[in-house]
Design a protein that fits this description.
Elements: H1 5-12, H2 18-32, E1 38-42, H3 48-53, E2 58-63, H4 66-76, E3 82-85, E4 97-102, H5 113-126, E5 127-137, H6 140-146, E6 151-155, E7 159-168, E8 171-181, E9 187-196, H7 201-210, E10 214-221, E11 228-234
Parallel strand pairs: 1-2, 1-4, 2-3, 4-5
Antiparallel strand pairs: 5-11, 6-7, 7-8, 8-9, 10-11
Helix pairs in contact: 5-7
GO molecular function: methyltransferase activity
Organism: Fusobacterium hominis
Protein name: Class I SAM-dependent methyltransferase
């Protein structure tokens, strides 16, 4: 997964405000009051958030994409950050944590309610007593606004992204085409496909309850990367 996107991810996310994400996490960690400072970033991607959080926390990262982790490893090689290849649905790094985070609507890549509940149960097992889990999800309105006429286009000086979208059986399918300008001045073309699922607030709450986690807060944030719901859970 994300074999192609991993090569373009940092360029695609060039204008993302990671500092704002870090500040939001700090606010919610303070509110959640975990007992310690060990942290796991689930779906850590190329490690940009870990670079920042590792200043104040003992961090690990996990991702399903080996290609993403290879890039993260290069960024974090001078920091004491462990990186794990794993599926967020059912995972075990062999360690437990005081804090877990999963950002940039990573949880929306889970495709069924059974898998969502399994994810929360894995989180529960890997959290220390009084530990917290922070994650964000997007809703159907977000997707509709992102894909007017089922199309998203991001055209930049050296990168063009075209995402074609459709919904089938309750799953959002995205066929992505990328044009990347190379050192010769011509353009290389890459294609890749992704899937996402929009869960309702009630579905998430029920899955959280079934995993024996406590819902502390749902925060609506529309300042960082479009309107999204950020959940704070506690063990």
């Amino acid at each position: 997964m994300y074999k192609i996107f991993s090569k373009l991810y940092d360029k695609f996310m060039k204008y993302s405000d990671y500092g704002a994400w870090e500040n939001q996490m700090e606010e919610l960690i303070k509110e959640g009051k975990p007992n310690g400072n060990t942290l796991l970033d689930i779906g850590c991607g190329t490690g940009e958030l870990l670079l920042r959080m590792a200043k104040n926390y003992k961090c690990d990262g996990m991702d399903l994409s080996e290609d993403m982790l290879k890039i993260a490893f290069k960024k974090l090689k001078h920091r004491e950050v462990g990186l794990f290849l794993g599926n967020m649905i059912d995972f075990d790094t062999g360690k437990t944590y005081d804090i877990m985070v999963s950002l940039f609507d990573t949880v929306n890549h889970i495709l069924t309610l059974d898998e969502l509940e399994c994810h929360f149960k894995s989180v529960y097992k890997s959290l220390n007593p009084n530990g917290i889990y922070i994650f964000d999800v997007v809703d159907r309105k977000f997707m509709n606004e992102m894909f007017p006429n089922d199309l998203f286009v991001d055209n930049r000086k050296d990168l063009t992204c075209i995402w074609e979208h459709e919904i089938d059986g309750g799953i959002d399918y995205i066929d992505a085409t990328y044009f990347l300008k190379n050192s010769r001045g011509s353009w290389d073309k890459f294609t890749e496909s992704y899937t996402k699922k929009i869960f309702t607030e009630d579905e998430i709450k029920k899955s959280v309850l079934n995993a024996n986690l406590k819902l502390i807060k749902i925060l609506i944030n529309d300042k960082i990367a479009g309107k999204r719901n950020i959940y704070l859970l506690k063990k």
